[in-house]
User: What shape does this take?
Amino acid sequence: MTCELTSTPNPLLTELPPLGMDAANLALDFRQYFHHTLGRDQHGTPPHCFYTALAMTLRDRLVERWKATDAAYAASQCKRTYYLSLEFLMGRALSNAMLNLGVTDSTSEALGKLGLLMEEVAEEEHDAGLGNGGLGRLAACFLDSCATLQLPVTGYGIRYEYGMFRQHIEDGYQVEEPDHWLRNGNPWELERPEYTQRIQFGGRCDYYHDTDKKMRVRWVDSRDVLAVPYDIPVPGYQNGTVNTLRLWKAAATDEFDLNEFNAGSYTEAVAAKNAAEHISMVLYPNDASENGKELRLRQQYFLASASLQDVLFQWTRDHGDDFSQFSDRVCFQLNDTHPTCSVAELMRLLMDDYGLEWAPAWRIVSRTMAYTNHTLLPEALEKWPVRMFRSLLPRLMDIIFEINTGFLNEVSRRWPGDVARRARMSIIEEGPEPQVRMAYLAVVAGFSVNGVAELHSELLQQDLFSDFYQLWPHKFNNKTNGVTQRRWLASSNPALSELISDTIGEAWVTDLQQLRKLIPFSGNAEFRAKWRAVKQDNKLRLAALVQADCGVAFDVDAMFDVQVKRIHEYKRQLLNILHVIHLYDRIKRGDTADWTPRCVLIGGKAAPGYAMAKSIIKLACNVARVVNSDPACDGLLKMAYLPNYRVTAMEVVSPGTDLSEQISTAGKEASGTGNMKFMINGALTIGTLDGANIEIREEAGEDNFFLFGLTAAEVEAHRRGYNPQAVIAADPDLRRVMQLLESGHFNPSEPGIFDGIIRSLTVYGDYWMIVADFSSYVEAQRQAAAAFRDEERWTRMSIINSATSGKFSSDRTIQEYNSEIWHLTPIAANGHGKSATPDYETRHDRFPHPCPPPTHPYPNLPLEGEGTIALPPASGGKLEGGTGEGDAGSLREFQVDRLGEGA
Ligand code: 26Q
Assistant: This one.
C-alpha cells in the first residue's frame, strides 16, 4: 500500500527552500550527517563515514533537481527513451556529482574547514563496476551526455551485488577476488519498493478462450521472482537536470517462503529464497558471450521484463489502456543483444496483459525497439538453446516462433524458393540442438540497427547482416562511439582542463569541438611549454600509481607507452609484448644508437575461463621481470603490468600517457573507446585501421598518427596461403624474438608455460595476424620513438590530437542517436532545483548542433499508407541556437595548413 497525500494544502508537500551551495552550507550539512545520521564522533570513525557524509550532502542537492526534472518531464508529456543494458560501468560518482553541481571548489573549502582533504575522502568510494569494459562504460558515458543535453532518457539495468571481480597478480598470474562494492552501503541509491515488479520463470502456457470467444494465453505454474528498483541520480552538467538510472535487485516472493514452509521444510524455503536472489548476485565477467549459462538468460529476462512492466505501468497510469500513441512516445535502445528478450516480452505484455491483438502489438514493438551491435566476432554472437529457452520462458519461446514464421514468410515473398536463404536468415538456427539467434531477433524487430564506428557499421551491412541489409537497408545506420569529456578531461585531468580553459574558454565542457581553437596554439612555443609541464605532472601521478601498484619505478622523462583494456587475442597485447622483447633484444645486442627511453605499461582483466588471455598476462609479467631486473635496460626500458584496471585507474592512466596502443587485428575491434580517452588527453596513437582508429586518424591527420598493419580487407585476403613460420624465418628481428621466447628465457623455472602462445603464432596459423603485422608495427614504433625525441614536434602533435578530438564526445554521439533514432525534445528542468550556475536555462546555446524537430519519427521506415504519425509538442525556442557562431569551423583550413608542419 502507498500513501496518497492529496488532500488540502499539506505542509508536508510544500516546496522546501533551496539548499545552499556555498562552503558554509555544505559544511553544516556534512556535520549534520556525520553526527546525527551516521552517529560518529572523534573516536575511531571508519574513513568511509567521511565519504558517506559528503555523498549524502551532495545527494540532497541532486534530489532537489531530480524531482524538478521528473516534474518537468511529466508536465511536458514528452517522448522518452529507455536505454536497456546488462551493464553500466559508472565508476565513482562523487567528483562527477561535484563537477556537475558546480560545487567542486566550495566542497573542497568546506572539507578544508573541517580538517579533511577532499582527495582523501574521495578515495574511499568504491567503483560501481557493473560492467566488463567498453560496452558498459559506453552506457555510462551516454547517460552523462543525455542528462547534459537534457534529454528524457532513463537507464535500466541490474543492481549486481558483486560487480566486475578485483584482479590481483600473484607470481604473474591473475587471481580473481569478488567485488563486494556495496559493503559500506551505497549513498547514491534510493530504494523504490513501491515500484516492485513480479517476474515469471518456468511453468507453461495455458491457451483459453475469453468471454468474447477470443483465444488468449496465460502463463501459469511459474516460479516467480520480485524485481525491486533502486534509483541512481544521473546529473547533467550544471543545467538543473538529473536523470535516472534504475537498477533492479532480485528478491523472493512471500509465497516462495510460504509454499515451502507449508510443505514443512524451513531450510528449503530459505534455499529457494536464496535461489531467487541469485539472479542479481553477480555480473558475468565475460566480454564475449558465455554461451548456454541459464542464470545469464535469467538475468537478461529479469531486466527486460521488470523494465518493460515498469514502462507500461507508467504509461497506463498516464494514458489508461490507450496504446495508440505509444510508439510515438516511447523508444527502447537495446545495448547489444543482451536485453533482446524485450522484443518478445513486450509482445507478451501487450497481448496477454493488455489485450492487444498480434498485429497492433507487433506494430508497437517494431516501431519502438532499436538495436546497437558491438561486435563482429562470431563467437560473441548470442545464441540460446531452444530447449533451455522454452523451459525457462515458455511463453516467450512461442512468441519468438510466431515472429519467425511471419518473418520467414516475408523472406519467401522477397526471395521465392530461396530455401538456403530462409535457413540462413531464420531466427532459429536448425541443427541437433536448435538455437535462438538473438541478433537476428533484434534485427527483425528493430526499426534501427546500428554499429559503433564507420568501418564496423559497414562490415555489419556487408558481412554479418548482409541478407538483412538487402531486405531492409533503411534500418541500418552508424553511430560512432564517444566518451564524456566531463569525466575524461574536466574531472580526471584538472591541470590540462585549466590550461585549455585559460586559453580558449570553458565552452569545450559542453561543446568539445571548441578544442579546435587550440590548433593555432600548437605553433606557440610558450603554450607548448605549458602543455608539456602539465603532461609531466600527469606522468608523475601515473608513475606514482605504477610504483604503488606494481613496484616499478617509471622515469617521467621516458616515453609512457600504454595499453589498457580487456585482455583478448584480437586486441593483440601479445604483439605489444613481442615488441618489448624486440627492444630488449636490441639493448642486449648493443643496438641502442638514437634510443628513446620507454616505459611500457599493460593492464586489463582476463575473463576467468579464458586460458590464452591468462597466459598473455603471465607472459607480460615475466617479460617485465626480466627487463626490469637487467641492469642493461636501466634508463632505456621498463615494463609493468598494472593490476585491477578499472574506470578509476583510467582516470590517472589516460592523462599520463604519451603513446596509446590501439593495435587490434583490423576488422575485429568494433570501435574502441579507450583510444578516444587517450586522444582527448593529448596522447598520440599507434594503431591499425580498425574501429574508431580510422576516424581518429582522419580527425588528427595522418601525420599525427602512427599507422601500421594490414587493413580489414587485407587480413581476410591474407588468410589464403598464409604461412607465419615462413614470415618468421625471413625476419631476423622476429626470429630472435621467437628464439628468446622458445629458449625459455622468460620462464627459466617454469618450462613450457608459454608453449600455447608460441604454437598459436606458428603451427596454429597465427589467426590474429601478429606475425604478419610485426615488422610494420616495429617500424611504426621506430617512428614514434623518433618523434618523441623531438620534444617540440611531439608536443605539437599532442596538442593537435587533443584539439581535433571533438568528434569523440559522447555528446555528439547522443545528438546523432537523438536526431536519427530517438527524436526526443530536450526538456529543461526550469524553475525547480537551482543550479550553481545561473544560466542553465539558456544552456542549449552551448550546443552547436541542436536536435531538429523531427519531420518524421522514422525517416527511413516506409509507412503502410496510414498518414503521418503524431509528433510530441515542439519545444518552443529550445531547439534554436548554436548556429555556428563561435564554432571553430574556420580553423579547419588553418589546421590543413599547419598539419604536417614540422612533421
Ligand atoms: C554475453 C552473453 C553472456 C555473457 C556475457 C556476454 C557479454 C558481455 C559483455 C558479451 C559482450 C560484452 C561486452 C562487449 C563489449 O564491451 N564490446 C565493446 O563495446 C565497445 C562499445 O561499443 C566497443 O568500443 C568495443 O570495440 C567492443 O569490443
About this structure: The first strand starts at residue 80 and ends at 84. The pocket of 26Q is lined by residues 132-135, 138, 284, 286-290, 296, 338, 374-375, 380, 382, 452, 481, 669-673, 691 (CB under 6 Å). The chain has a mean pLDDT of 91. The radius of gyration is 28 Å.
